[in-house]
Specification:
Distance between the termini: 42 Å
Number of domains: 1
Shape: globular
Order of helices and strands: EEEHEHHEHHEEEHEHHEHH
Number of strands: 10
Number of helices: 10
Oligomer: single chain
CATH class: Alpha Beta
Structural class: alpha/beta
Length: 343
């Protein structure tokens, strides 16, 4: 039951313990310790899995309801007629301290501030590990040819808060090299996030153009996770910070699809980021996604390969987004989508 106060407090619904904690544990090696993150997986994946050809990593939103997203992943995989033995579905869970306490979890369980994990922030405990390092650990395991000899592609996808993780990770990711070197394709699917990472101080105007943003309106408009000022510790490579242009070049070279519900256009949506940094990008998620696509196309007119798909009749709904023709195509490739839709 939703309290009246919750309707106007976009943080309230997620600031309470989750109902379900994933049953598996993903080990995260950091420093001299080994920590853990709860994980849902559709198949046995700790032992060698010879038949898996595709892995889909789906990230939950701000409610940290990984169980709901795992159920969604299984439904859409079935809708795409995927062979279960060939498709591995993975949903990691970024918990808060309240979750650890409520479920009496082991002391090695990583936990974040309520929403810091969305931007690659470090865990509050028991070790300062970025949520991006969790994705690195998943990719490292998948890159093992001894464990996954038949793997040909990996997809990292997220909706809403999870999409914020995916979009930023696609910019600063450093865990993809082993996969790519092994000939495994990696795709990023970003669905209905509240904001995006910009590569300079331009922001969309009311006319649809872009202009330097007036810092007097929001002094932190270009701070991470909205811009490249104040980058997280994860972004440094051996203590050296790449240039903004290096981050942008890496991002544009990656396989990225943005999915938007054409009805995700409520400027008062209770889960919409209405901070001044986010509002500098547009009034609502649809406008922000459309503007960001124009922004990137303007900067990379020649050979820019990212894709944008607007899903008709869908609002802020992961089932509607990922269960659509465009969503199935993004997650399971064009052939799977054609099979599901009969064309």
């Amino acid at each position: 039951m939703t309290r009246d106060s919750d309707k106007h407090d976009e943080r309230a619904p997620n600031e309470r313990p989750v109902a379900v904690v994933a049953p598996l544990r993903l080990p995260i090696h950091h420093g001299s310790g080994i920590w853990s993150v709860p994980l849902f997986a559709s198949n046995e994946w700790e032992a060698p899995v010879s038949g898996v050809k595709r892995a889909v990593i789906l990230l939950h939103g701000r409610l940290r309801n990984a169980d709901t997203y795992f159920d969604l992943a299984r439904r859409i995989a079935a809708q795409a007629s995927c062979v279960a033995e060939e498709t591995l579905l993975l949903v990691p869970q970024f918990l808060a301290q309240a979750d650890v306490a409520a479920h009496h979890l082991a002391a090695d369980t990583l936990h974040w501030e309520w929403t810091d994990w969305m931007g690659g922030g470090q865990a509050q405990g028991p070790a300062p590990i970025s949520s991006f390092e969790v994705l690195d650990a998943l990719l490292s395991r998948l890159a093992s040819r001894a464990a996954f000899p038949s793997l040909t592609e990996v997809v990292i996808a997220g909706h809403s808060g999870g999409a914020q993780v995916v979009q930023r990770y696609a910019v600063v990711c450093r865990g993809d090299a082993p996969l790519l070197e092994g000939g495994v394709a990696l795709r990023y699917v970003v669905a209905n996030p509240s904001s995006y990472l910009y590569f300079d101080t331009l922001r969309p105007t009311s006319s649809g153009d872009f202009a330097p943003y007036d810092v007097a309106r929001c002094q932190t408009f270009n701070r991470w996770k909205y811009g490249l000022e104040g980058l997280p510790a994860y972004a440094a490579i051996d203590g050296i910070w790449p240039s903004w242009s290096e981050f942008e070049a890496a991002y544009t070279g990656r396989d990225v699809t943005i999915l938007l519900g054409d009805r995700d256009c409520d400027p008062q949506h209770p889960a919409l980021d209405r901070s001044c940094e986010a509002c500098a990008q547009g009034d609502h998620r649809l406008a922000r996604g459309q503007a960001y696509a124009r922004y990137m196309e303007n900067r990379h007119r020649a050979g820019f390969g990212h894709r944008l798909a607007e899903i008709p009749g869908v609002g802020h709904d992961p089932d509607g987004i990922f269960g659509s023709r465009e969503g199935l195509r993004a997650l399971f490739d064009e052939r799977a989508a054609k099979s599901a839709y009969g064309f």
